[in-house]
């Protein structure tokens, strides 16, 4: 986690004496170099202010004293601008007081504005202590969400590689295990007389996944029941659902026990959106076959397809919805998947109620 933040912060470019502060500021991810420089230069100004009475004198139109570092008082007395011993007004002191007040007023104004903005926008205008606490809670949760999003894109702690044994073990972590229901997309996306399921796949994957994605989409396009459109969008490690499309994404979900997952949103018994997630914890450094199988598998679930077999150790059936301990011959959709898709999206079901009340259902496969 820390390493991620470090990676994304602006690294110090010089050996600055304030580098320890710099590290903390950057570690939080809220500062870049600018504030540190501002702090330094502010400090410089501060020192300059109180040391360079010569510059002040010039600015006020007073004869500049000749600065004598060995005997400062004598040089000041020589200019005649200070008469502190006789009780009269010291113009320098008066001026410093004025400037101190101006600085205090300025600081107070800035703090007031910051306080007001926090109250209005950060806390959503709380009117009592409970609402204030609620506001802070919301800010905390928003910060947590942001952190989670950053962390999903942090690949520093992923596995170095993935063996066939671990890959097959992870099949048991598939949340779709044992759920062999076939579920269709909603009718807005289905035209059984014109190509079946018409679906857009939003490619929210980073560059490392483009080959696997393009390959899997081309393989699924072999089905006459699928009309797929792809659209490359911004990389989204958060894998947000988008209505009416299938989002495909990659992120480091950690040691979850699954290499990939598909989440279909179902309303009134049909799919309305879908997300296929590749878990980089296992797949970032995995072989191409493991990655390609997972991509084919999760996209397949996104069409509403179930597994074809859930024992990874028996012979491969030759399709990517068959669990396997060796994906090399299970990389593609198989005929069994294609037949299922035709049944789901290219058939017309007719229901007829007979006079005696019997319901007769006829299924017709539409061929163009
Ligand atoms: Zn599965």
From TrEMBL:
SUPFAM superfamilies: Metalloproteases ('zincins'), catalytic domain. Transmembrane segments: none annotated. It comes from the Eukaryota. InterPro entries: MetalloPept_cat_dom_sf. Residues 72-82 have a biased composition (Polar residues). Residues 54-93 are annotated as: Disordered. This is Peptidase M10 metallopeptidase domain-containing protein. It comes from Cyclostephanos tholiformis. The lineage of its organism: Eukaryota, Sar, Stramenopiles, Ochrophyta, Bacillariophyta.
